[in-house]
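Notebook, student rotation project (T.W.).
Task set for the rotation: take a protein with a known small-molecule partner, predict the structure of the complex, and write up what can be learned from the model alone. Partner molecule chosen: zinc ion. Sequence and SMILES entered below by T.W., checked by me.
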Amino acid sequence: MRVCRGRGVGRHDLGFSGVDMRISALIGLIFVLLVGCTPEPTPKPSSEKYTKRIALTYDDAPRGDGSVYSGVDRTSSFIAQLEEANTGPVAIFVTTRGMNKQEGRQRIEAYAQAGHLIANHSDTHMWASPTPTDIYIADIDRAEEKLEGIPNRRPWYRFPYLDEGSRGEENRDLVKRDQLRKALADRGLISGYVTVDTFDWHLDRLWQDAVKRGAKIDTEALSKVYTDMVLDAAEHFDVMGQEVLGRRPAQVLLLHENDLAASFTVDLVRALRADGWTIISPDEAFADPIAVHLPKTGFAGMGRIAALAADAGYKGAEFFDHWSADEKGIETRLADDGVFTESVDINK
Ligand SMILES: [Zn+2]
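Predicted structure of the complex:
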């Protein structure tokens, strides 16, 4: 549902004038809010302001063998899932040290040949904040070199751990963050920011562990947890985006090239569409005005919309936190749904 909160518009006017250039549409929204949150006007599907749009992006490819899929099989299965789901292009953010592994480069080329977009997620996946700036930038450059010759490249850099160099007391002055921003700009790169963050990596790890210890796995229930995790997170940041920006920005979903993606992407995309989302290309998502609206805050770990919310003065765990980005929250949901059942060895 649409935001029917005068506060959202106030924040927009105070903090974000100039973000949304469609002034006439904004005046229309203000009018609607002033006259009392009536259900009119009906959102027009053709209007970006009211359309739930989300781009799918996957980090850390090519990841190594897991207990469900080998790396090579995972890539094949994932590409097949994306094709069956008819997603169009998704973004694959490559950690290029993985390209040294067996068939690592071929796996990235396979994504590109399937029409997906290839971008930089560093060579060795370091935290930016504790790493000397020159070493960190050299790692970005090394990744760009290794990606040379791969089709469908895009000039996007995704910070590992969403650490943009502003964590910790020693980086509070934001000098390192700004040096890294300048380094990206000097190279013609933009931050491949996210707006919808989930802990899919934690859910995947729990699944891998359950397989290893021989637990019985309810695959349908696991898919439902994965899907609900993403749906609820998307809803959370959709509401936040409207609250903070007074419009619906194109969302950028952060997931990982893991066995969950290789197994449940068809289910996930079906559920997103049933919930009113349109899957868009990352090209469209990174053309949103928030792509050039660099946050002032050093708070970067929950993505671009959360950072812009912090800039606008929003505070508190209640506003920002969500079970999809919480290890305990995910574990509770798995237990509640009985996804893993421990097997009993009768010979013991
Ligand atoms: Zn990563």
